[in-house]
């Protein structure tokens, strides 16, 4: 879900998607509440009920009129579910047996599969299925005796035959921005980010998820406070530049970042197989000189303009691998694995997921068919035009006390040349650490509907075995 902010509408930053989800949330909760109200056993059965207990629960809910439950029947190779709203979905018998989440089949604490998939007969078929208030009950044949229960909301969420519309998306909305973001840049106060309840931390990381960057204001201008702040998100990713950086323009590392020259908008680590997920910067001091403004550009915004106005160039940037290297030190020569080259724009399920762009770190373009070479140069010329337009560039003079964290898979950064002594500190955080923390905080502050619906009988240690991420 991408939403582009036109340069003039930044003041009307749409409310996040919470409100939109609220509509869905409300109706499902209502259904859930009805079930719970009629089922006092749920309240006193906080853990996954054993098969026997689960059966007992369903006996006690006979008061619920049948018509309010989805229908279920066994087909040749699939179980067919007819949901209350008229939608239907089919689930293969093998799939159902393999995804049983009872304590024998799925470890409720480690959240790992226990069932031996390969001992399930290829032609397994349920003996009986029954629609129960808490979900679809499947009784497996006596040769493989077992009773499974699959909550309705979980089945609907995971439906694949067909995929049902309006499934609650687990990826959040992105707000694409141009230079006018300078009027209201996403910012969180240090005291909130460091508060023990994690709410400010969630706000900070959500900002990064939505805008691709966020400031933290009021941070003590020390390396210690900055490092602690980074570690609120996750552990620091160590690279050839070290772990936590504290650097000046002394060329202590073989990279132009360690000079005072201007750097055009780029992402870091184009020469890595997995470029770092986040970068954190903090200008600790700048004396005896001037310049060194920070540049941020929303790569997703620039890409959306390119796609709209020059789709053929967008296509080229999505397909052509661009080799890259980091070789400024005798101790290492980094190039990405395995193919040595990734495209500028990467996609998953048709959605833009990653921008990789650093023209300075580009290696020799020697794999392009000759007929495509000029089209490729034309494409990057257009790309560069959008990245460097005044509509895209957000320039900001950082000052001690303001930390900026940037999503390196989306937002490009750079700086203007400077004079004098400038001391910066910062760090990288891996993309998986950042996404994991975001998932954890979402689970805490904005739990998904499937987990909410199944809380009374699906959780152990606070995390539901029906969590849609599992
Ligand atoms: Zn089982």
Summarize the structure.
By secondary structure, the chain is an alpha+beta fold. The chain folds into two domains: 45-169 and 450-460, NE0471 N-terminal domain-like; 174-442, Double-stranded beta-helix (4-Layer Sandwich).
Structural overview:
This protein is elongated. Mean pLDDT is 84; it is low at 7-66. The protein folds into 2 domains: 45-169 and 450-460, NE0471 N-terminal domain-like; 174-442, Clavaminate synthase-like (Double-stranded beta-helix), CATH 3.60.130.10. It has helices at residues 18-37, 40-44, 51-59, 93-98, 152-157, 190-193, 199-211, 223-233, 299-309, 311-319, 370-387, 431-445, 449-458, and strands spanning 2-4, 71-74, 78-82, 88-92, 128-132, 135-140, 146-150, 174-176, 187-189, 213-217, 244-247, 263-266, 278-287, 294-298, 321-323, 326-329, 332-334, 341-343, 345-348, 351-355, 394-396, 403-407, 411-415, 421-429, 459-460, 463-464. Strand 5 (128-132) and strand 6 form a beta hairpin. It has 13 helices and 26 strands. Helix 7 (199-211) crosses helix 12, helix 9 (299-309) packs across helix 10 (311-319) and helix 10 (311-319) crosses helix 11. It is an alpha+beta fold. The strands form 9 sheets. The protein has a 6-stranded mixed β-sheet with strand order 9-10-22-13-24-11.
């Amino acid at each position: 879900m991408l939403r582009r902010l036109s340069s003039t509408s930044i003041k009307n930053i749409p409310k996040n998607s919470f409100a939109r989800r609220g509509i869905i949330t409300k109706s499902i909760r209502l259904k859930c509440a009805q079930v719970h109200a009629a089922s006092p056993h749920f309240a006193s059965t906080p853990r996954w009920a054993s098969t026997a207990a689960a059966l007992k629960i369903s006996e006690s809910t006979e008061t619920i009129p049948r018509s309010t439950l989805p229908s279920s029947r066994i087909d040749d190779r699939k179980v067919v579910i007819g949901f209350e709203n008229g939608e239907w979905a089919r689930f293969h018998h093998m799939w159902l047996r393999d995804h049983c989440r009872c304590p024998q089949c799925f470890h409720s604490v480690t959240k790992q599969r226990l069932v031996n998939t390969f001992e399930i007969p290829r032609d397994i078929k349920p003996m009986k299925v029954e629609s129960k208030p808490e979900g679809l009950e499947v009784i497996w044949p006596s040769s493989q005796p077992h009773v499974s229960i699959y909550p309705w909301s979980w089945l609907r969420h995971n439906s694949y035959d067909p995929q049902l519309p309006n499934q609650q998306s687990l990826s959040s909305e992105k707000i694409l921005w141009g230079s006018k973001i300078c009027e209201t840049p996403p910012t969180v106060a240090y005291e909130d980010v460091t508060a023990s309840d994690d709410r400010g931390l969630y706000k900070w990381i959500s900002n990064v998820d939505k805008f691709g960057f966020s400031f933290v204001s009021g941070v003590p201008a020390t390396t210690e406070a900055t490092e602690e702040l980074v570690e609120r998100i996750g552990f620091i990713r160590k690279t050839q530049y070290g772990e936590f950086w504290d650097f000046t323009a002394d060329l202590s590392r073989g990279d132009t970042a360690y000079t005072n020259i201007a750097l055009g908008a780029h992402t870091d680590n184009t020469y890595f197989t997995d470029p770092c997920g986040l970068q954190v910067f903090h200008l600790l001091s700048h004396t005896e000189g001037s310049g060194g403004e920070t540049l941020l550009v929303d790569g997703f915004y620039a890409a959306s303009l390119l796609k709209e106005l020059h789709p053929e160039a967008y296509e080229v940037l999505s397909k052509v691998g661009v080799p890259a290297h980091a070789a400024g030190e005798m101790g290492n020569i980094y190039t990405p694995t395995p193919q040595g080259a990734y495209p500028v724009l990467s996609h998953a399920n048709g959605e833009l997921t990653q921008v990789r762009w650093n023209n300075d770190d580009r290696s020799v373009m020697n794999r392009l068919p000759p007929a495509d070479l000029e089209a490729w140069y034309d494409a990057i010329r257009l790309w560069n035009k959008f990245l460097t337009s005044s509509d895209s560039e957000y320039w900001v003079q950082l000052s001690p006390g303001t930390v900026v964290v940037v999503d390196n898979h989306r937002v490009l950064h750079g700086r203007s040349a400077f004079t004098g002594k400038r001391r910066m500190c910062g760090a990288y955080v891996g993309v998986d650490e950042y996404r994991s923390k975001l998932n954890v905080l979402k689970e805490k502050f904005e739990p998904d509907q499937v987990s909410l619906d199944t809380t009374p009988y699906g959780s152990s240690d606070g995390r539901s075995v029906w969590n849609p991420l599992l």
